[in-house]
Amino acid sequence: MPHPLLQPPDDQDMLPGNDGLDGDVRSARRDDERRSAAWPGQAHAPRGPSAGVSPDAGILSSATVPAQDSTHLRASDWTRTLARYRQPLPSRSVFELAVTLVPFVAIWAVAWWILSISTVLALVLALANAAFLVRLFMIQHDCGHGSLFRGRRLCDWIGRGLGVLTLTPYDVWRRTHAIHHASTGNLDRRGVGDIPILTVTEYRQKRWLGRALYRLIRNPVFLFGVVPFYTFFLQNRLPVHLMRSGWRYWLSAMATNAAIGLFLGVIVWLGGWDVLLFVFLPTTLLAAVAGMWFFYVQHQFEETSWQHEDAWNVQEAALHGSSHYDLPRMLRWITGNIGVHHVHHLASRIPFYRLPEVIADHAILVETRRITLWQSFRCARLHLWDEKHRKFFHSRRPGRLPPEPSGTRLRSRQLLLVVNASALR
Question: Nearest Cα to 260, choosing from 234, 286, 226, 225?
Fold first, then answer.
């Protein structure tokens, strides 16, 4: 489930000769108390293979290095290639913020006004407005990465303001989202900023209660019905995962809570509880459900990549463990191009409105981990990572497991023969 970010150093990401990681990700990795090993994401040959696609699947811009065969390049080469896209365009950033925030407020006002005429029409407008709230969250997401404007302070204060509308304490989200970027696809670093996932082996080792709870969590009704409400309405109210990380995150959560409380209090005082029930709640809940779905599909697809620490590499995980969710044009606009997620994880400082420019210039990225809207619905059935076959296992019966490895079956048969022989004696 989506979690938040950290106070970054001032260093820039994706510069030639740099390690290809932005300040948030680098700081989160250093700050991770569970693992204090040296940063593994330097721009060198990956330490282990990635699943599904060759780790050499990459391409370099001719403006960056001499032309060469793109099929023999590493994923880490992308960090230099994508550096030239990371500069935000201030006028474009202002425009994108305005064309999202102004319609959101306007539709809110119209739904509020029309509520006295027709509850149904107000509800329809509120549900439609969820699209703009999703986009505001994506803009807040860019602020967290420092990619909307050149000034980090400006990004931070815009992000904090938007956090009141999205019910997301900005500094808390920013912290744990950096951890997500620093550990995505790492089986030994699961648990912060991601969706619970077990391997087939881990699932087999659990008792019936543990299996039942895991199947409940991965059930689409629970995952996209209960979890979004819990995340945005309850979990975001307290920085539970950052209890020992300093006062900054408590201040972020409590200040956001106070602003939300004041906002909702004014709504009830001026418009009554009907505005809260038929305008505020439908917009926020639908946006939360949509946000959970997009976050899920970005990493929970069949041919994704999960590795243990000794074989994991941050650039390989970014390129092969994040999807290119190829959506229709309107949905790309609503989601702030977040479907181009493999590029975003490779270069998180690229503004969302420049991501289409990247895949337009580098055709190989279009088909890399590409999932269409129709194909994505199958991802809802995925629930176990099969380490042997390097893919997510899915079944119409969630409790049904893939066959055990042949070696396991052979050992079982040998054991059975020994037992039978002993009985005969």
Answer: 234
